[in-house]
Amino acid sequence: xxxxxxxxxxxxxxxxxxxxxxxxxxxxxxxxxxxxxxxxxxxxxxxxxxxxxxxxxxxxxxxxxxxxxxxxxxxxxxxxxxxxxxxxxxxxxxxxxxxxxxxxxxxxxxxxxxxxxxxxxxxxxxxxxxxxxxxxxxxxxxxxxxxxxxxxxxxxxxxxxxxxxxxxxxxxxxxxxxxxxxxxxxxxxxxxxxxxxxxxxxxxxxxxxxxxxxxxxxxxxxxxxxxxxxxxxxxxxxxxxxxxxxxxxxxxxxxxxxxxxxxxxxxxxxxxxxxxx
Length: 277
What we know:
This protein has 277 residues and is α/β, with parallel strands linked by helices. It is built from nine helices and eleven strands. It has helices at residues 38-43, 59-66, 90-101, 135-151, 170-188, 203-206, 229-236, 247-252, 262-275, and strands spanning 2-4, 22-24, 27-28, 35-36, 73-75, 107-114, 117-124, 155-161, 193-201, 215-218, 258-259. α4 (135-151) runs parallel beside α5. The longest helix has 19 residues, at 170-188. The N and C termini lie far apart (48 Å). 39% of the residues are buried.
């Protein structure tokens, strides 16, 4: 989009003047509604410089922000979801998700270094079917914890999800138990798990590995819960408190340990890793 100062036909007969302002706008902040340039977004880590609203990031952008330069090695790239239940329209949804996200599934897993400490890393992607958890997502995360247990290294995870993927039925729901088992074995071996909850983290992901970390962090204003507030209001037929299920509400109720702005995440996680080394 291009914003220009309106032409004044009384000045130069409608021609563009040398002092006219041309600004390329990359996004409009949905919270304060101010226009933001690509330079402002990149410089601030895709955080609004005016109101501190955190824009969604894809998985690759998060890896670039959190991992030490050139340290990330991706695993399990060969795993790809299939329509094993022949759910109507699921093949088309998968094709659309691959096109939109340029990924094969809703999570990227691998190993990297954060502050010089080797970790297993998984990062969920909101642009692949809203980060929904299917059988491949669960398998990738399970393998990440199993590798971390074998290598005796910490796991760092970034979650964003609308929940379990209904198109895969029970195959999706069973990932809750499978990932939880892998987290438990990793924990029993004396290893650290740090999880960063981003907007939104809901459904089966919240009900399993996302809330099983040793240290649970969240981005400001992230929606965190099992059922969404609209569903809860319709069920109990009552108006929920202002900010219900947002990160600040969850911190007050003791469900998370801290809220960390994006610009501080790499430093804070690196400090936590060093403390538990």
